[in-house]
Amino acid sequence: MNYGYFDDQNSQYVITRPDTPYPWINYLGSEDFFSLMSNTSGGYTFYKDARLLRLTRYRYNNVPTDAGGHYFYIRDGEAMWNPGWQPCQTELDSYECRVGTGYTTITSSKNGLKTEQTVMVPRGFTAEVTRVKLTNESSEAKDIALYSFIEFCLWNAQDDSTNFQRNYALAEMELEKNGAVIYHKTEYRERRNHYAVYAVNAEVDGYDTDRESFIGLYNSFGNPDVVVNNQSKNSDAHGWAPIGSHCIKRTIQPGETLSFVYVLGYCENPYEEKFTSHGVINKAPAHALLGEFQTDEQFEEKLTALKEYWKQLLNHFSIESADEKLNRSVNLWNQYQCMVTFNMSRSASYFESGIGRGMGFRDCSQDLLGFVHLIPERARERILDIAATQKIDGGAYHQYQPLTKKGNSDVGGGFNDDPLWLIYGTAAYVKETGDVSLLHEVVDFDNDPEQAQPMHVHLERAFKNIVNNKGPHGLPLIGRADWNDCLNLNCFSAEPGESFQTVTNNDTGIAESVFIAGMFVGVADAYAKMLEICGRADEAAFAKAAKAEMTKAVEEHGWDGEWFLRAYDAFSQKVGSDTNEEGKIYIEPQGMCVMAGIGIENGMAEKAMASTKKHLQFEHGIVLVAPAYTKYHLELGEVSSYPPGYKENGSVFCHNNPWVMIAETELGHGDSAFDMYKCIAPAYIKDQKLHRTEPYVYSQTINGKESYLPGEAKNSWLTGTAAWNFNAIAQAILGVKPQFDGLMIDPCLPAEIKDLKIRREFRGNVYNITVKNLAGGEKGKINVVVDGNAIEGQVIPLPEQNGQTIEVQVTIV
Fold it and tell me: Does the active-site annotation cover 485?
């Protein structure tokens, strides 16, 4: 069953009914101000940090779902309804939600009244701006009332949802223009220098700022007292729960359209300019903001600019093929999701509350892989932020808060793969831009200026953190865990409710990770090259020797006969071995080791891929481990705590599926790699009801073959899946690979892609690439012609001057 379709011409996904299998959302904002917006107007807004500077409330795990949002209520005679269907859930005569790039439009109708609600966060503004258009499509005049509604959060989202003894006494508001402009100034009287404003560009017939007055103590969002009685109470919040609501009553003639623009904004003042008189906030920044959105023309101008911004941004990499699903995935939705994950990391979604997690060291470094080609200067800034939280020994805090940019251990620490991801992200940036100055940038360790060192020293300490922490087999120690946060080989947690990530770690220096070993080998060449660029030939030679030594350790101690082992536990027993009763084979080392080139020459790699397809792959993707664990293993930790087929215990973890796709291209298997790609790419989803989450973005996990409901997805949007799948398709399969010395063309195409056009912006130049595949589904010989001249090899030499358009013809035979 389907709930919508792609409108490729308008770069939108169109949702055709409101009762989707799960709320389908969009992210509004690309700079500092963000809104989550569902197809039924649910969601919330925040400035920079969803935990510390949240403007509006949202109720996770609520019944009914998706409670709290950007609501509008309509009263048309006796009828009471919402343009987005929720929360009244009145049956609508028509409904459509268009999910666009940075904006959402919901159009609906009831009894001859058509509504159009368009919501965006315009670039350059710290505000969510909404236009509501009402059109009378009936033959008689209509007397209507339009009520807006948002509920303010008291800034700190965690405290807001827990510290009620204080919060119920805090709320303070101010009004202008008889309630058309509502100011939320809670805590502004003391330590804060910021407030929120919620305004409409029209005269109002009433307002409310107190939730209980608007809804009623025992009513719900679906039947608020004010709307039921069609009369605002002009309530002023003093403590309790502050809201913003405007009432507009108008008569609409047949064929007439009325339009209203609402602004929900964040405003800041210098501390010495907080007030204009005793207790009266300085409204100058709010007035400046609201002045930009007083007319339809102003709104349309900002919306057009937003659409054009995304059109130009996504034109950095685009393709034309005979497969329209591939085109829309590559050209729009995958890259769009990469931008969102770059902005959010894993902080705020409909599965992440915005309270528990901030910006992950590993997560942000991986997200760069799918983002760096879009806005490299922001990628550079992010790399410096990440590096500044690095510990002095090369280790890493697992996350930092976006507002403070300081590392913390709130979600645990000691994940021994973390340091290497900094090398991955930095290498991606330097390859993309050629900006080697980053390697010489002086950056703090642990946010301490006295410990600052050049970036290449940060990379060295990250690399040597692995070299200096090996176990009995010469493989890297796993610490608390590696990429698989749930493989806790030193935890031994038997206490119910105890966090596997924060409980005291009993690291005895024995438990080792084959996955980290593969990752170490895979990143070593790029690391050595960056050292050579910095004139550090001795350290580069050391890196190459360390790579060779680690490769040998993996082949001698990390091979199980038909596939790569996952790890050795704290008792030096094999994990992910055919000798295990459960959990015989894991996906991560198969993909990562073959990606790194381990076992390609001696046949191990081919065997590992064959075993992956035999034991792990099924119709919905490649599961993480098989057989899944059916009982809790104290020595393995959280991975065995989930039921079989869910999350890390045997689901399709979409994040690591592209590692296997890339590994297949390393072996030249184009058909196999592309089949794996289509298994999890959202554009190819066949059953939206089963899949549940948005059909236009990747989810973190899809229930595995041993689950109750194989094929059901969870944890959409914020996942490293986006960046890694973009890398798999753009670089490994389509074959456009930034290198330190230029752009490499190295496709490994399936037989079904015979002709392909690619447009790639790279280092200030435009490459128009035409590919003709005569080799079928296995990788053939690649011939590259640049501006009419055949070149040796596959790396296109950089032009002497930038600003060139370069024509490239590629033939695969």
Answer: yes
